[in-house]
Amino acid sequence: MRIVLGVGGGIAAYKVASLLRLFTEAGHHVTVIPTEAATRFVGTATWEALSGNPVSNSVFDDVHQVNHVRLGHEAELVVIAPATADLLAKAATGQAGDLLTNTLLMAHGPVLFAPAMHTEMWQHAATRANVETLRSRGVAVLEPATGRLTGSDSGPGRLPEPEVIFDAAMALVEGQSDYQLPLAGKTVTISAGGTREPLDPVRFLGNRSSGKQGVALAVAARNAGATVRLLAAHMEVPPPAGVEVVQVETALQLREAALAAAADSDVVIMSAAVADFRPAEVSSTKIKKRDDTADPVITLVRNPDILHELVERRNSSGSAEGEQLIVGFAAETGDSHGDVLAYAEAKLQRKGCDLLVVNHVGADKVFGQDTNSVVILARSGSEPQEASGTKTQVSAAIISRIGFELNHVSPRT
Predict the structure, then answer these.
(1) Which alpha helices (DSSP H) does 115-270 contain, by range?
(2) Tens of pLDDT along 15-33?
(3) Which has the closest alpha carbon to 324: 264, 412, 367?
(4) 319 pLDDT exceeds 60?
(5) d(C-alpha 252, C-alpha 256), whole Å
(6) How far is Cα of residue 184 from the mean position of the Cα atoms in its chain?
(7) Residue 378's beta-bridge partner residues?
(8) Distance between CA atoms of 78 and 5, rounded to whole angstroms?
(9) What's the pLDDT score for residue 358?
(10) Do 360 and 225 fall within a single domain?
(11) Do 195 and 251 form a contact (C-beta atoms < 8 A)?
């Protein structure tokens, strides 16, 4: 694939060298076009060495090849990183003062901007208007990461990690030029993994959850343009790059983190396997197994229903319908009294969430596996939606459905 990689004049330009490496190692032909200001941070020699192609930012170099027209026409993907406030403004207003902005005007394929700038610049009304203008034209604009900026400041405006930009770019190409980031500008909180309820300093009550599905959801939401907050209980897989991680262990800790995170979230996805019960008493010392004592009796008490509480808080806050979407997960088994879907439908009514993702679990199903098969139920009563495949594929279907619910457009197939 032919890629044009435009590099803006920001300190984060040095991180784009790693993005270029990801593209070239994946076998893509990359032409780098830095702005004049970008060459103050990273010189053209670096871009030429890593891309294997000549680098220029002038419309007057190789005039016989008409580069200011040719590069945009030939590009199957254009990625701008870092996309500074200046570059966003020029792109939104159709300026063509150098080779990069000319190329943007000539681009026929998908275009992805990865912004990076100071928080106040990103939040300024002019920048926000420019971003909305670009998105309205079908251009993909990622949300910047939140973290340490130049100097001592922290906040939204940090360049997303190269792996995040690479994944988003590949997702964009899969949908071609009509692809939209369905969660652009949204904040999504996702719980993942399994909670652990301590019995003593050594032992705990836990479950088989690996966190794979929750992590896959975080990646899918991130690639869909969202700012993602991952509430991570015990997981057997590392959290993905480009998301905020809040570590929790018990159901009570998860409840506290979820209620706090939901306050500024557009979407809350409770995919963690939360313990229904916890020991009524936790021993401060290891419970000993001794011949002269009776077997211990462990009394359990109910944990709070976090999902139901999230729904109640949202509904009692006076939020307008659709302002926050809450998604629950139900790991169910059937029995003589009903099948999996019957139990799930009853749970959906009890919980009151907008969507309920249901899977049939067992010792060799779902937990710890790389594949999954789910049914998505909606409180609105719409037809159940099935999704199966790898947990990455299932997550893509779930995030697409969430985008449909938020934007009232048909989910991608």
Answers:
(1) 119-123, 125-136, 162-175, 212-223, 251-262
(2) 999 999 999 999 999 999 9
(3) 264
(4) no
(5) 6
(6) 10
(7) 355
(8) 6
(9) 93
(10) yes
(11) yes
Phi, psi of 321 (to 5 degrees): -55, 130
CA distance 7 to 62: 20
Asked if residue 412 is part of any domain, the answer here is no
Helix (H) or strand (E) holding 246: strand 244-247
> Is 366 contained in some domain?
yes
Query: 67, 130, 207, 359: which is the annotated catalytic residue?
Result: 207
What's the rounded mean pLDDT across residues 191-215? 94
Amino acid at 141: V
Least confident of 144-148, 255-259, 322-326, 378-382: 144-148
Rg of the chain on CA atoms, in Å: 24
| Beta-ladder partners of 244 | 229
Q: Is 57 a catalytic residue?
A: no
The one-letter code for the residue type at 110 is P
Q: How far apart are CA 91 and CA 72, in angstroms?
A: 14
User: Is the overall model pTM greater than 0.90, yes or no?
Assistant: no
Q: Do residue 266 and residue 338 come from a single domain?
A: yes
| Distance of alpha carbon 391 from the chain centroid | 14
Query: Is 371 within the bounds of a domain?
Result: yes
Hey, is 105 helix, strand or coil? Answer: helix
The reported pLDDT for the residue numbered 334 is: 59
pLDDT top residue among 364 and 128: 128
Is the same domain home to 123 and 17?
Answer: yes
Confidence band for 413, pLDDT divided at 50, 70 and 90: very low
Separation of alpha carbons 355 and 292, rounded Å: 53
